[in-house]
Specification:
The chain is α/β, with parallel strands linked by helices. It has one domain: Alkaline Phosphatase, subunit A, CATH 3.40.720. The chain is built from 14 helices and 15 strands. The strands form three sheets. The protein has an eight-stranded mixed sheet with strand order 6-5-7-1-8-9-2-10, with helices on both faces. Strands 4-12-13-14-15 form a five-stranded mixed sheet. Strands 3-11 form a two-stranded parallel sheet. A hairpin with a 6-residue loop joins strand 12 and strand 13. The chain is globular, with a radius of gyration of 26 Å. The N and C termini lie far apart (101 Å). About 2% of the residues have low confidence.
């Protein structure tokens, strides 16, 4: 018979063993939770210049508290670009590049027999099975649940169809049902369903908006906040209101020369603007745009709150960007068919596990790098068709940029169109349009002239309207003999990029 002392020792050992087992189970569960595969929330807005946002332009009147918080908790990239377009609907090639991770001359058009990209028919340049290796298809195969909501049209339909759940509709109205809240509701309902069914699979959500693309019909409350009206009368100018955003610092009443795309819808037919570039029209249109932008920010906040309630926010990579920038009065232009920084560049904010908080970096990324980066961050193998570069080393603080040179194209109008190249602080833009009637060269040092001021910006009336007087060196330097060698260097660099990227066109002064 065991004595009391022996019984006590046995009981103590059993209790200790039980505690060890319980602790081990807890550690195992914690490790399993820690090892849970990360989610992705990719947010894409339609037509937004980075300079609309306070995170890029502190003097902007636009209020976006959720994006400000996202930037404070994540990283902002100051040199993020779309590569360009061979069609007036710039969003079409941009969204093809985002989905496929391929360069602008290596992607299809949304129409099968289109000649916009002459390389489309070449299977060595544009793989026939490319849709099967786009964003959703790649993550479906990796075990992710995929869902998207976005506008319809001017997109990569075959890639969009790869998402398991698709809730697409074009929503550019000023109500909850006709505007941005509709897109947020699709995401919130999807997340609620996951929550209800306790779905443990990682997710990739493509959270797209139809705004601030025109027609920029804001809600009555937000329009009032920015002093704007949904102007529809071609024969009258919109009302003046002191609450409206100020004119852009590089505003002009007209561009110095023709942009090369006759009858371009974005320059002549946008409801509320048309061909007008007067101060009243531009300030009102910016107010309409800001109303739409703030509504987008509100909807993003709703989704982030839901992710936090579900316990998923800290395990989710969040990317915020636009398919391209926008002019709206800058340089006397209205649309997205140009290669100035306000339009060639895009806003880009990233937050998630391992991404540095409250930091900025140039990046020198293209939107086509997103697929490679998503794969790198989540441990998913990128498709062999991918041509993008992962910018994970930038997000984790190991590098400041992933490439030295950036190339841009717009040739949706008359050919060969516009081309740009940037290296360091230097940027070249060339125009060869209207059958040779317009041949122009622009050279900027972006460190000294970040707004790409032209001689026209120095006119006293423009200085008075805008409230900013450019310095003497803030002009186009292409004709300045002091920069002859730099111009030749940038011209050679542009041709090198055009050749490497299989650009099928050549400008008037290029030869190989």
């Amino acid at each position: 018979m065991l004595n009391n002392s022996l019984l006590f020792r046995h009981a103590s050992r059993l209790i200790l063993l039980s505690m060890i087992i319980s602790f081990t189970a807890q550690v195992s569960m914690a490790a399993e939770k820690t090892a849970k595969r990360p989610n992705i929330l990719f947010i894409l807005v339609d037509d937004q210049s980075p300079f609309d946002l306070k995170v890029y332009n502190p003097s902007s009147k636009l209020q976006t508290p959720n994006l400000d918080k996202l930037a404070a908790e994540g990283m902002v990239l100051d040199a993020a670009y779309h590569m360009g377009a061979w069609v007036g609907a710039v969003c079409t090639p941009s969204r093809h590049m985002i989905m496929s991770g391929r360069t602008v001359w290596h992607i299809p058009d949304r129409r099968k027999n289109s000649k916009n990209n002459p390389n489309t028919a070449d299977p060595t340049r544009v793989p026939p099975d490319l849709a099967e290796n786009t964003m959703a298809a790649v993550f479906n195969r990796a075990g992710y649940d995929t869902m998207r909501t976005c506008k319809k049209g001017n997109s990569y339909n075959a890639a969009n169809a790869q998402f398991t759940v698709v809730k697409d509709a074009t929503k550019r109205g000023g109500t909850d049902e006709t505007g941005s809240p509709w897109h947020a509701r699709q995401v919130l309902e999807y997340l609620a369903q996951r929550d209800e069914t306790r779905d443990e699979d990682p997710f990739l959500i493509y959270f797209g908006f139809s705004h601030p693309h025109d027609t920029r019909d804001g809600t009555p409350e937000l329009l009032a906040k920015y002093g704007a009206t949904n102007h529809t009368d071609k024969n009258k100018l919109p009302a003046v209101n002191p609450k409206q955003p100020q004119l852009p610092v590089n505003y002009l009443p007209e561009h110095p020369f023709h942009h090369g795309h006759p009858n371009l819808r974005d320059e002549v037919a946008v409801s509320g603007v048309w061909k007008n570039r007067d101060e009243q029209t531009i300030r009102n249109e910016l107010g309409r745009e800001f109303a739409c932008n703030e509504n987008i920010d509100i909807q993003i906040g709703r989704v982030l709150k839901k992710l936090e309630e579900m316990g998923e926010l800290d395990n989710t990579y969040i990317f915020y960007t636009a398919d391209h920038g926008m002019a709206i009065g800058r340089h006397g232009l209205q649309g997205k068919q140009n290669l100035y920084e306000h339009t060639w560049r895009v806003p880009f904010i990233a937050k998630g596990p391992g991404i540095l908080a409250g930091k900025r970096a140039p990046g020198n990324i293209y939107l086509l790098d997103i697929l490679a980066t998503m794969c790198d961050l989540t441990g998913v193998a990128p498709p062999s068709s991918n041509e993008g570069l992962s910018f994970k080393p930038i997000l984790t603080g190991e590098q400041q940029t992933i490439r030295d040179v950036l190339y841009g194209v717009y040739c949706g109008g008359t050919k060969p169109g516009m081309r740009s190249v940037r290296k360091g602080d230097w940027k070249l833009i060339k125009y060869d349009v209207l059958d040779g009637k317009v041949r122009e060269t622009q050279l900027f040092n972006l460190a000294e002239n970040p707004h790409e001021f032209l001689s026209e910006h120095h006119a006293p009336q423009i200085v008075k309207q805008v409230g900013t007087k450019p310095t003497p060196k803030q002009i186009n330097l292409a004709s300045d003999p002091a920069y002859k060698e730099k111009l030749a260097e940038m011209e050679a660099l542009l041709l090198q990029q055009m050749t490497a990227l299989h650009d099928p066109h050549r400008l008037w002064n290029q030869s190989e």
